[in-house]
Design brief:
The chain is mostly helical. The chain has helices at 20-50, 56-70, 83-102, 105-158, and strands spanning 5-8, 13-16. Helix content is 75%, strand content 5%. The chain is elongated and about 70 Å long.
Amino acid sequence: MVDGEVVQSKNSTLWLAPNMAQSESALAANWRRRAQQLQKEAHVFYFVLKHRRSRWYARMVAACAAGYVLSPIQLIPNFIPVIGTLDDFVILFVAVKLLRRITPADVLAECRQLADVAETRRKEEIGWKASVLSPIVVATVWILAAITASAMMAAYIYH
């Protein structure tokens, strides 16, 4: 038998293959990297839309893709768990491929540089504050919501 990790729970024993924890963290890192690339591509869309040498149809593709993703009216609504978000990714994927083909290379390179500069500036402005304060704010909101819900339930039950 190959060496692995045995995880025991209350009712059963589960054998995990070696490096399964690393593969899950690698998968999460891969998804995180892709999400960051998608965010950067959205920023490039913005700069292509605003660039003076962009062709009108490149601007139209960027505007329509952004409009579809941000619109509350969609072919498949976002409240449907997987498929609702999947159609947004498909639209963005097709728009990125199309923009790469129809936007002149020098304009696209300039827009990518502008997106990199904007991202660097955003990270410098936010810095450590967002990484420290965001979890604190979220936890505080959840705790206050739990306390409020508990007080409301207690008032409803005992009155």
